Model the fold of this input.
Amino acid sequence: MDAGISIAELTVERLPDVVELCHRALDLPEDAAEAGPLVETLWPRAAADRIVRVLGAYREQELVGVLIGSLSAGDGRVGHVDLLAVAPMLRRRGIGRALLGHAERAFAQLGATEVLLAGNPPYYAWPGIDVRYTPAICLALALGYRPDGTAWNMTADLSYDGSPALRSTETAESRLAGQGVTVRRAEPADLPALTAFARATFGGSWDAELAGSLGRPGAGCHLAERDGELLGFAAYGSSRPSWFGPMGTAPAAQGSGIGGVLLRRCLSDQRAAGVTAAQIGWVGPVPFYSGSAGARIEQVFFLYRRTLDARINGKW
Ligand SMILES: CC(C)(COP(=O)(O)OP(=O)(O)OC[C@H]1O[C@@H](n2cnc3c(N)ncnc32)[C@H](O)[C@@H]1OP(=O)(O)O)[C@@H](O)C(=O)NCCC(=O)NCCS
Done:
């Protein structure tokens, strides 16, 4: 690494500097534009629930590189690199390598035996490395990371009135009403019932994403119920205003059109908030999103992992 560059752990007072650096250093315009909410999701929001560390690379007083890392909530032996960015003018000088090396040593000190270059749900900005960040993929391979699968987002086009993503939900909602199903916008008071429904029906935990979608600007949630019993929900904007998800329909109600209605209600909100292309993150059911909103697979992410050397040691 260049002489004159030093690495230090950052405290939250440096958040504005980190956001400003990410505006400049995230090469994809859609990521640069959302640098503020993206960084805030990874830190400090995520830090309320799990161990998050932020490393800064400095040239004199100037922040020129940043890495946000977190320990997996479910498995303390796994560390995640959530974000890594180096100022464009200072690339290929070893700053990315040094930040990752520091992070690996810090994860080892916390008891981790593996590091993933992959999102750490529910607080993540990308499932893995967007393939268009090709230098980051080169860096991962140069540092001995192994490919660990592929993930993708789908894009729903909200840029024009006739888009299939903005198809009216009116007819489907009247049909559902005939079956006693009501669809409405969720309120903060619905949160306990929504989290209980999501946990009981789908396992895992969408608690944080549901909480992040209610009562915050640029975010929202819609639900379907019958006789006070929840049948499904769809949320958006929890980590990034342009991102849709999570969503889920109770198995017994699947196939009734509830999912498509909830999805398009959210997309219509996102469009009203100025989003022109919604990202459906870390997608499972491609045919559902393609059929219900004309969404297409667009962003592809490579995931990587590396087993830490047992002798690795150090500090932030
Ligand atoms: C990815 C990124 C952080 C790398 O930072 P960096 O400080 O330039 O990386 P380093 O100088 O430490 O590179 C270390 C090694 O990675 C590889 N590498 C990095 N950039 C590369 C490139 N553009 N082409 C080929 N190999 C590359 C090389 O092997 C390099 O070693 P070398 O220079 O001795 O050949 C930087 O390009 C960046 O900020 N990109 C935009 C943001 C981003 O992609 N973030 C990841 C998604 S969160």
